Amino acid sequence: MAARPNQRRWMWRRWARRLALLLPIAGALAGPSCDEYGQRIYTARPYRAGAPCLDPSVPIGAVKAGELPATCGPRCLWVDTTLYVSTVCPPLPARARETMPDATPGSTRDPSSGPGIAPAGQCALALALYEAQVFCPLAPLDAGMLDGGLGDARAADP
Known about the structure:
Layout: H1 5-34, E1 38-47, E2 58-65, E3 75-79, E4 82-86, E5 96-99, H2 122-131, H3 143-146, H4 153-156
Antiparallel strand pairs: 1-2, 1-4, 3-4, 3-5
C-alpha cells in the first residue's frame, strides 16, 4: 500500500525537524574536538645510574602541539640532572635537552653539561635497556595512598 502525498510530506517534515534539532547538538559536541593544537604532556622513562631497568614513564613537561605520538625512535633527554629515555616525538619540553649515546659530559655534544652529570655512556646503557624492553615494575601502592593518605587516622575517628 503506497503512502499518500500528504503523508509523505508529513514524514519529510518530521525528519527535517529531527535533523534540525540534532545538527546543533552534533556541532556542539564536535566543536571542542576540532581544536587539535594545545597543551600536551610529554612523558619519558627515568634512568637511574646502575639500575638494572628503566623506571615507569613519568611526565617531564608540557608542550604545545597538535598531536604528540610516541612513535619516534628512543632518545636520551636530560631534565635538570636526570636522564630520561623517550619515544615521544618532538617538540621537546623547554627544560629537556637531547643528548647523544656517545656524548661525554662537558662536550659540545652533551647539552646537559654541568655539575653532577653522570659518567659517559649512561645514555647508551639507558637506550640498551629500552631496546631490550627491560622495564622496572610499578612500585606497590602504599596503603596510605589507597585511603587518601589518612592511614590509620580513620580508625581513630569515633
